[in-house]
Every structure is written in C-alpha cells, then in structure tokens.
Amino acid sequence: MTINESLSPTQHEVDPAALGELIGRVIGDAGGALILPLALLGDRLGLFSALASGGPVTPGELAQRTGLNERYLQEWLLAMAAAGYVTYMGTNGDPSPRAARYRLSPEQAEAFTNPDSPGYVAGGFQNLTAATRMLDRLTEAFRTGAGIGWHEHHADMFEGTERFFRPGYLANLASSWIPSLTGAQTKLTDGARVADIGCGFGASTIIMAKAYPNSTFEGIDYHQPSIEAARGRAAAAAVADRVTFRVAGAADLNGSYDLITFFDCLHDMPDPVGALRAARAATAAGGSVMLVEPMSWDSVEESLNPLGKLMAGASTFICLPSGLSLDPARGLGNQAGPARTCEVAREAGFSDARIAASTDFNLVYELRP
C-alpha cells in the first residue's frame, strides 16, 4: 500500500478512548429515549403528583396511594431515580428493592407537577414521545422528500405542545415580550385588535386576553380539534367574551390588526413567506408582527450544544416534515437561525425585522411594515 492509497473506514486505526466516549454518549441517549415515555406514563397515571403529595414512600406504599400495581411501580421508581427525576431516600438497612423509599424534591415537583411554573417540562414528555410515533413515515419521507402535515401527528402532539410551551408564554409574554415591541404595550392596554396565527389550543391567545382586558383577540389555526380545545379553554378562563377562535389558514385574516402574533409556528409552515406577506397586509398603521421562534443559530458550530441537539432532533421529526407537506414546501425548520428568519421577513415585505427579546429557549422578533 502506498502513502496515497485511501483506507476504508474499517482499516482506520480506532482510538479506544474516543470509542468509549462515543459509546458512553449512546448509552446516555438510549437511557433518555426510554425514560421520556416512562415519565409520560408517570404523568398520565398521576405518579409524580402522588409522590409530591406526601412523604417518602416504598413501591408498596405508592401502590396503596394510587391503586396501581406494586411490581410495576418498583421498576418505574428505579428508572426514574436513575434518571434523577425521582429522589432515592434509602432502604433503612433493608437491601430489598421493595424497601427502597422515594420522594420528589421541591425542584422535581416544580418541574413535573406545577403547570404554571416556567420550569414545568411534563408537556415535553408528551409531545416528544408523540413525535417518535412518526418514525416509519419519516423513514419513507427521507426516501421520497415528501412531507408530513402537522395534523397527521398523534393527538398527544397537540396537547403536549400546549403543555410544553404554555409555561414559557406565561412567564414571559406579558411581562417582557410584548413590552419589548415598539408601542405594543400601550396599544394593548388601551384596546387593540390582535390576531394569533397558529394558536393551537389557545394558550398564548388566552394569556394575552387575561393580561389585556381592553383588547380583543382572534385565534386562528387550520387544525379543527385544536380550535375546539381552544374554545373550551377560553370559556374555562372566562375570556370568551373577548376571544374568538376559528379554523383558518395563516393567510386567511379578516381586516386589519394592531398586533399579529406567531408563536413557535412559522417555521412549521410550508409557506412562511406567504403567511408573513398576508400578516404584513393585515397590519394596521403603527402596528407590528411578533414572531416567537425556538432558539436557533446561524452556524453549525453554534448549534453543537445540548439545546441544539434537542431542537434539531425535534425539527427533523416535526417541523421540517410539516414545512415540506404542501407547496411551496419551503421546509424552514426550527433551526433557520436569526439571519435566515429576518431574510424571510424581508422577502415578505417587512422593512424592519429585529430580535426584540430572548430567553434561553426562544427568540422574539419584531417585524414592522
């Protein structure tokens, strides 16, 4: 063999330390892949709430508290404790797994049982597990380039998305995001007309309606079951007198609005430019568009971090297939980055597109005609 001859992958010398590190990452990811649906199971069965409602318990005591099977609970508690989702308290000298005692720490209770907390993540168990149900369809989509519509996902996707995103909206929407927009706080306080495009179950619409009682809000989504859920939630929140929801596409706007919002949805749309172009045409004089998007970066190097891993994975399962599901199939995905996002806004006719606010998980853009 000469020095210029290339080696096949199997002929390259393997670094045992690097290989061990890679296998360790796979083990960690494999464990997480199993823990999320098991955590969803615990959420569905009320196990986190049951653990938060009293002191440390054995599997048998938790079985008595919940009416569930002790043997399954023993295994579930062990898995959750290994993941750090439940706190292991010891066995009081008895080595039997049945004697092990578990509880939720205050932080675990906050993350898994308090839906109004900005740290609440249980919705992620639901929508991320739902995403993986599309693996067979996604495999074929990779071969054909076809898309998968948002509406084609399992029902857990829609409810889980609302549960996952609502805490962030509750913590930031009225307190910092709307105030970061030019003149929007004053307009909504005095009384404005607002359209919330891609509203889903209406969490963002209802939060705004409760914060700004002098304004009226219209939630728009093409997914009929989500709109029906949103109407029920608006009635329960006692804001149905100033909030309406209707089944419609992103470009189907009625009249003009002082504020038009897109919450974590533009990147899912097959025609984001068309949606923004329609929003621009419907923006009243002095009004603006608030575009809330997942955190993303302009370069691959910036994206190589734990959040980037989560976002790119979710985009591959959910956002990109949705964006390729209809013509013109822009396929923006949730990792478009600020430069590309602002470029899309300018292509739609906005003269000003800027990042107005941000959190660890979101970028908030203000678009002005």
Outline the structure in words:
The structure is a single chain. With 369 residues, the protein is α/β, with parallel strands linked by helices. Helix content is 49%, strand content 15%. It is built from 15 helices and nine strands. The protein has helices spanning 16-44, 47-52, 59-66, 70-83, 106-113, 122-132, 135-144, 155-177, 184-190, 203-211, 224-236, 272-282, 300-303, 306-323, 337-347, and strands spanning 87-90, 101-103, 193-197, 216-221, 243-247, 257-263, 283-294, 352-358, 362-368. The chain has a seven-stranded mixed sheet with strand order 5-4-3-6-7-9-8, with helices on both faces. Strands 1-2 form a two-stranded antiparallel sheet. The protein is globular and about 70 Å long. The protein starts with 15 loop residues before the first helix and ends with a strand.
Class by helix and strand content? alpha/beta
Provide mean pLDDT, rounded. Answer: 96
Assigned CATH architecture of the largest domain: 3-Layer(aba) Sandwich
Q: Mind describing the biggest β-sheet? A: 7 strands, mixed
Q: Please indicate the count of domains.
A: 2
Run of helices and strands: HHHHEEHHHHHEHEHEEHEHHHEE
Radius of gyration: 24 Å
The count of β-strands is 9
Any idea of the CATH class of the largest domain? Answer: Alpha Beta
Estimated share of beta-strand residues? 15-25%
Our count of helices gives 15
CATH superfamily of the largest domain: Vaccinia Virus protein VP39
Ends apart, CA distance between termini = 65 Å
Instruction: Specify the helix fraction band.
Output: 40-55%
Strand order of the largest sheet: 5-4-3-6-7-9-8
CATH topology of the largest domain: Rossmann fold
Low-confidence stretches: 1-5
Shape: globular
